[in-house]
Amino acid sequence: MTTEKPPRLELKHASKSFGRVRALGDGSLQLRAGEVHALLGENGAGKSTLVKLLAGVYQPDTGELLVDGVARTFANPAEARDAGLAVIYQEPTLFADLSIAENIYMGRQPRDRLGRIR
Predict the structure, then answer these.
(1) What does the pLDDT look like over 69-95, one tens digit per residue?
(2) 9-104 adopts what CATH topology?
(3) What is the mean pLDDT of the chain?
(4) Could you state, in order of their start, the residue ranges of all structural domains in the chain?
(5) pTM of this prediction?
(6) How far are the Cα atoms of 31, 64, 90, 115 from residue 110, in angstroms, in the given order?
(7) Among 87, 20, 16, 30, which residue's Cα sits nearest to residue 58?
(8) Cα–Cα distance measured from residue 18 to residue 115, given in angstroms and rounded to the nearest whole number
């Protein structure tokens, strides 16, 4: 008997429009712990919009975002990050002089008691 893990992250029937342009219509996605996914599609298919909905950059016009089965709304990327959701965008050279780890943690570096980056 196989037991399927519940989704850690789920987007149900999400849509997003900018004026008269519908950037995403009926986007749905389930992500479970331990899985690897690829998001593929033509230019204009809504991939970036879907990712930005997950990351709190945009809020969906319709649909629902669930984290561990609980409906969530993120007003900004900081709220999404606090819930464990972060996006590393495809631009590989955000700060060319920094390491990959430093680029990933940009803005979240460990700080000392005075607020200085350690």
Answers:
(1) 999 999 999 899 889 888 877 665 567
(2) Rossmann fold (3.40.50)
(3) 87
(4) 9-104
(5) 0.74
(6) 29, 33, 24, 9
(7) 16
(8) 39
